[in-house]
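Q: My labmate handed me this sequence with no annotations at all. I'd like to see what the chain might look like in three dimensions before we decide whether it's worth expressing. Could you predict it?
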Amino acid sequence: MGQTPSQPIVPPCDAECQRQKRLTQLKETYNSSVQDETQDSAEVRQARKQYFTFKLGDAGYMNKERETLEKIADKHTGKLQNIHDRFIHDIKEQKEIENDNKISIKNMRELLDKFQSSNKKIMNGLDDQENVLETSRRMVWYTNQKVGRYRSFDSLIATILKLMLLIAITFFLYDQKYISLTLVIIFYLLIMHFL
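A: Here is what I predict for the chain of 195 residues:
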């Protein structure tokens, strides 16, 4: 019979070999399910349990599980600490902002009080000026009334004086008293000058 090329002879796989194959298979499953050792999904937990129980036994698995869970807890604790620190920082910033706002509101109130006080003084000043103006208007009106009366009296007196002058001129011309007539005309002119 013809010779066939020799094929490598695969030694039979004993218990240790079988264990190594199984261990390699579980390790690959575990590695493919976990990218980060701190990941903790149901698939990762199952792969981790099968691999470490098979490799280390139940006690070894428990130790490894405790270490893994401590890493996960540390990672979450770190995250929570960072979140907590950010919240504390934000709270401090908010308190500073609140204090700044309180100071701003206080300053704005003081400024408002100053403006209101100033406005009140201005309004009082305007009221006083309005009162003075109203009093001045009344004084002008009464003065105009007096001036009007004085002009009426002046006109009446001037008319009476003219009438008296006419009578005196007629009387003195009739009596031919020219000196007295001249004196009356001079007095008339002086009186009219001062009226």
